[in-house]
Write a structure and sequence with these properties.
mainly alpha, 80% helix, 10 helices
Amino acid sequence: MRPRFRLRLTGPFPETAARYGRVCAGMPLGFLLKGLLVGIIIAVPVGPVGVLCVRRTIFHGRLAGFVSGLGAASADAVFGIIAGFGVTFVADLLLGYQGWLRLGGAGFLLYIGIAAVIADPFKATQSQRDPEGLLADYASAFALTISNPITILAFVAIFAAIGFNGRAATSGRAAIMVLGVWLGSLLWWAGLAFASGMVRLTFDRNHLVWINRGSGGILVFCGALLLGSVLLQLFR
């Protein structure tokens, strides 16, 4: 009776198989870290949304500032989805109407800025955000961020620069990258809200008055500047 031999397919070399397994296991973490870096790079430039986040933190508490940052991070994630998954028809739609979106963003900035200038800073610091107020904070920050669809092109350029293109741009890796973008952007906004909350207790009444006027004035200036640039593009 002949002995039976059972063949086990373990790969050419055990060392090679183990190394391949470690590389595959590390790839999701690598793309997550890349997305984290992209999210921070996109969120770091201080603009109207940053001013709005700091202002809300100072006058309404850290939670209001964090929720506002969450809205901005969600909009960044939407842009990341469009760029990472190559949803070209949505990108073309947003970029095709970017003039009108920016016009709406300019009007919204003017409204928020004027309301901030005329608001009573002392009354604002004594009020806590209710769920409806926090939802409004989230929605307004999301709307302001999404009204600048040119950010999609920035995502495309950054993704290409870090090597996320061609065969590397699979659906699974794109999902990991987008998650990283959202986490990176949220990390920046959470840090900004926390830092603003740390110093808000050191402000006296005069400081609050000038912060109220200054932040509102910056928002009005940004809105007027954006409105002027959009009108020049639409009617030139």
